[in-house]
Amino acid sequence: MRARVYVTLKPSVFDPQGRVVAEALHTLGYGDVRDVRQGKFFEVELEGDDRAAAEARVAEMAATLLANPVIESYRVEVL
After folding, report:
1. pLDDT by residue (tens digit) across 34-79?
2. Which CATH number fits domain 2-78: 1.10.10.10, 3.20.20.370, 3.30.1280.10, 3.30.1490.20?
3. Which end of the chain is less congested by CB atoms within 10 angstroms, N or C?
4. Which DSSP category does 78 fall into?
5. How far apart are CA 3 and CA 33, in angstroms?
6. DSSP assignments along 20-46, one per residue
7. Reading across the β-sheet that carries 72-78, which strands appear in turn?
8. Residue 9's pLDDT is what?
């Protein structure tokens, strides 16, 4: 079973890397870009068939290691 974890900075946390990317896009002529937020993406391959157990296990992984819950939010998607 495969799961995806999307990690992004919380809206209240300043994102300097996203700001630099937004400014670069403006320089390249993409003036309609209002904001860019950067993040991380993980794909986790698990053994087993229990979808609920897989989602709980990957959420535990995200809260423990993949994301910093103080400044980041995460979303788990089981495929």
Report:
1. 999 999 999 999 999 999 999 999 999 999 999 999 999 999 999 9
2. 3.30.1280.10
3. C
4. E
5. 30
6. HHHHHHHHTT-TT------EEEEEEE-
7. 39-45, 2-9, 72-78
8. 96
